[in-house]
Amino acid sequence: MSPSRWTDEEFDVRLGRLLQVGVIASALLVAAGGIVYLASTGLASPDFAAFHGEPDRLRYVRGIVHAALTGSGRGVIQLGLLVLIATPVVRVAFALFAFARQRDWIYVAITSTVLALLAAGMTGLI
Question: How many domains does the chain contain in total?
Fold first, then answer.
C-alpha cells in the first residue's frame, strides 16, 4: 500500500474525528456564549409581547466573528452555530481531499459537484 493512500478504516477514523471536533467545538462555543450572555443580561426580564430577531450585525459572518472577538455573548453563540453549520461542509471538503489522495476520480467528481452545490446554496446563487 502506498503511504499516500488511506485505508477505508483510516478514512473513517479521520472523518469521525473531524465531525467530533466540529460538534464539540460548536457546543463549547454555544455554552461559553450562553454563560457570557446570561452573565450580562441574566436579570433582565424578556419582552414576550413582540419578537425581536438578531441585530443586523449578527446576520453575517464578518459581524458574527467581530462580535465574538469582542466578547459579545450573542456573537459567541452565533459563532458556535456557524461552526455547527460548517461542520458537514468541511466534511464534504475533507472527503474530496481524501478521494483525491486515494486517486478515486469518480468520487472526486461527485464530491466536487456536491461541494459546489453547497457553496452555491450558501452564497445564494441557487
Answer: 1
Does residue 1 sit within a domain? no
- What is the rounded distance in angstroms from the CA atom of residue 55 to the CA atom of residue 58? 6
Q: What is the DSSP string of the chain?
A: --TT---HHHHHHHHHHHHHHHHHHHHHHHHHHHHHHHHHHTTSPP-TTS-----GGGSSHHHHHHHHHTT-HHHHHHHHHHHHHHHHHHHHHHHHHHHHHTT-HHHHHHHHHHHHHHHHHHHT--
Domain extent, residue 65, equals: 8-42+52-123
Per-residue pLDDT tens digits for 38-78? 998 877 787 788 888 888 888 889 999 999 999 999 999 99
Residue 66, in any domain of the structure: yes
Q: Is the pTM of this model over 0.85?
A: no
State how far the Cα of 43 lies from the Cα of 39, in Å rounded to an integer: 8
CB atoms within 10 A of CB 64: 23
Q: What is the DSSP letter of 124?
A: T
